[in-house]
């Protein structure tokens, strides 16, 4: 009885998931097809292009011809790797103590952190602080001012709290200190959440745009997204000029593919870690 | 060291606190870099909020700018605007729709993925569903237009072939919020599922085995093991989200709205943008930000108190 | 043991932060001016080779320029004038970045401003009054007309230089092959215009057997520009001068008639239903979905664009339409006397650095004709990007790489000479659009609205309701009354009047 019901249930699950895949794949095929099709051909075929008929790499070539783009990739990779590392170290160092309900001042800290998810000082005073701390026009301006994300911190703390207290106590009896517990017990058991929060941070850095625009004026330090936004929004500037050709839809789509591709490719590798938590069961058992 | 022992003998509140603090110094030490960060880069700039009560002047700076007259000038500016009530209402409605319709799909997707045993299929679906998160709003709007445009959108071509009429999806007040919310779901479903998928990994697998021995079907296990297992994460996200009840998603609406749908689409932030655009009104933007924060704090504190009952509170 | 661990980690994290601090300090030399750049004596242009003068320029633009060390134009200017200019273009979030730089105490020496930022920055004493320095820029003084200088004026002082004028470029464009197919004449009056639009919609001009075409497309209200002006009124939201008095176009009686006509037109179904929300109306036109579009000549007639629509349909034939005649006369759209392509201002802080200031003035003068620099910013390097033949400039193929150059023409250019070189094939279209009769407006000279009324939603949204028949035209007078009182149009008209009087447009 249950077996039959389970089968039916699973079939529904598979159908729904397949539906979701289709609903995502079709629009994405459109993005890719348009990026590969000459502009006049896009217009000629009209409406919704799913498969390119005349393939051209012109849009990609136009995009990569600019010597700044490969460089921008380098900047983006740097702030993503280093930034995520800094984020994870600082966040876990802060999240772990906050799981200790007995820690004096814990609630005050938590309230202050929650408040920052609601309110920030605004662009101008933040700019002044970044300037005073000497970060202006350095890559660090894109890393340090976002060193801890309050949302990520709270999520990580919630996951740490889910770990059984008994582990903690056992380790303490074995003579481990707080740092030892964090490093040798909590972190190894928290790979899924470290991977998840790491991904959240990494994607945030990959999409870094505003900090770069505001704090960094040296174009050699501009990450990919600044270039992309420049392409997507050119032509919206009030100083539209007759020589300024609006980027064609093909060029826009090519820019999207080039900026999104690397971070998308990373995801399957991170997914592996989601299942690592099974470890927990074995430790406990 | 001796002193602490001495104090321990005559405990009062202050000394006990101090003694505890000393005892947990390793924990505090760990937090120092993070706390420094918060003090300098997050709380440091918050003094800037005073410009909500000032006529901000770039040359004179935040402290030198004159006080607004009356001090609530910029709050009044919003409240007196002809669309204050409508934009507040739209903001709340859109935000709530996004919450009610936006949160469950991620949870459901995560649960469905959790049921799938084919590893490859699971990873494939997961990766594909997460892709739209990386499309910027401008591109997504381009896709929406390509699909739904009244004159040459794919969907409207079908509708026209079937009924002879076309539907003004993007320019009709009946459709706008639906499109807004469903675009949001499409963009974020895979991304929001990630956190729940991570949460499943902390559910003790022996619970499932036990349930299976009791002859429980998959649906019962979802209901009694999987969902309770991620309850605290759901509550956490819900509480945090409630604090942002007056953030209906500026960028999306700003890119997608148009004159035909103002009555259902204009929100507080789009209004601030239009008014502030003319004279870069930092004071107005800050005042409105403060107002939104105030509401957010009230809601988040209330929600946290409620969440405590289900052991899901943040503090 | 464990204490050592935690100390180590804290130290590590701390290093991250300090490291950031250190490299920040050393990586930031560009913002500071050279400490010892030849003090005093700006007048004595000593024969001794001096250090190049450094200054910063931050301009709003569309980008597409190479890094400055690879930009031939910037390099040439630096060499000619013995300067080391740091020239940057902000494509996105320009105003915010500029505000941040100014707030942080490092304003650029030369930067883009617009009407609203001039007002703000001038009120806050950030801008140099250029009036007193005009004598140091003889080319500018000569090339700029009174009207040109008026554009950068605020409260009677010249705070900004505009890019000298462009010329009117917008007209209606029509598919003449569709006219021929349906045996129709080129529309000359607004009634004929309506008939053609309806025919383009109803009579299958593309001959595919489907009713899949529209008459008119365009982007937002300007799509109806030629209609408004045929009724003798400027597009909504503009200031005109009538009987020597400032009037606001939206509240003019003729607007009611024009809107009535447009409402009728929309009711026939001959207007693209997405006309107000189109992002790429040209795509629709090129695809053959619409037969008339309001646009400028570069969008249709430059070689690259022409290739696109000829590729799609070799039979397509887009031509410019002559101005329509209506109850208000024969006009094709508006022309704003104060229209600017962009303006630049100089930071007031330069007052204290005469060397730098003199160099900036010299630079601005140099790139204004007849300065030699004007040729450089317009056409690039002689021999590489252009050559001189019998006193005229001839483009070389390499000039195609300088599509970004317009952003470096800070003081504008002599438009017609320029276009002749750069758009040699488009001469007739340029000429046609330039010579169309236009209704003059003066909106750019009128102060901007302040506070909550800066939001034009009511005016726009209700107007659209009248156009789409969602609000009966009988309520038009209520609409005007609300605008006049609640949205301060009456008060703003008085303001406009005095502003235009001050500039001499109203006697």
From TrEMBL, chain B:
The keyword Ribosomal protein does not apply. The chain crosses the membrane at residues 26-44, 92-113, 134-155, 175-200, 221-240, 282-303. GO terms for biological process: transmembrane transport. Its main location: membrane. It comes from the Bacteria. One of its GO terms (cellular component) is plasma membrane. Residues 88-303 form the ABC transmembrane type-1 domain. It is a multi-pass membrane protein. Pfam families: BPD_transp_1 (PF00528). It is found in: Cell membrane; Membrane. Keywords: Membrane, Transmembrane, Transmembrane helix, Transport. SUPFAM superfamilies: MetI-like (SSF161098). Belongs to the binding-protein-dependent transport system permease family. This is Sugar ABC transporter permease. It comes from Cohnella nanjingensis.
From TrEMBL, chain C:
Residues 1-20 form the signal peptide. Pfam families: SBP_bac_1. SUPFAM superfamilies: Periplasmic binding protein-like II (SSF53850). Residues 28-40 have a biased composition (Low complexity). Residues 26-48 are annotated as: Disordered. It comes from the Bacteria. Keywords: Cell membrane, Lipoprotein, Membrane, Palmitate, Signal. Transmembrane segments: none annotated. Gene3D superfamilies: Periplasmic binding protein-like II. This is Extracellular solute-binding protein.
